[in-house]
Amino acid sequence: MPTTYSRVTLATEQLDTAIEIFLAERSDVAALTLAGAAEEILGQAVKLAGGENAMQQAYEVTAKTHKLLHRTELRWQDFADGENLARNAAKHMRAPEEANVTTDLRRAAQWMIVRACSNYDRLNLERTDRMRVFDNWFYENEVGV
User: What is the rounded CA–CA span in Å between residue 11 and residue 140?
Assistant: First the structure.
């Protein structure tokens, strides 16, 4: 029997599962794609609520720097394609020359989780236990605190 679900609740479950898989080092590609799905839905929820999501904020900062360095505008699509390169490579293959991809899946999964968590925070939701565990891992392993 069909059931109605909150998309934010579904995205939260995907994000928590991505974190669990990532921290257990079971599958970086699974963590990446789950976190990517969560990031997309949570980011859209932020936009629909009238806020600025993590990608939009990162674009604004990067576009300003790009313009100063290169004296050209950074197109949104070019920025988004770059930010989502690993996730999209794990989800799509349109041509024979796309049969292989060179990327750091671990790093891509980590930063996709960070983006998804940032969008979650922008919805003023209370972090889950797994998100707090990830925060601790991040500070220990990435920040060095």
Answer: 26
Per residue in 78-93, pLDDT (tens digit) is 999 999 988 988 888 7
Task: Count CB-CB contacts under 10 A for residue 36.
Answer: 25
Half-sphere exposure of 81 (CA within 13 A, CB side): 5
Sign of CA dihedral 134, 139, 141, 142: positive
User: How far apart, in whole angstroms, are the C-alpha atoms of residue 110 and residue 122?
Assistant: 19
Query: Is residue 61 a contact partner of residue 79, using CB atoms and an 8 Å limit?
Result: no
Residue 17 tokens read as: 């599962």
pTM score: 0.92
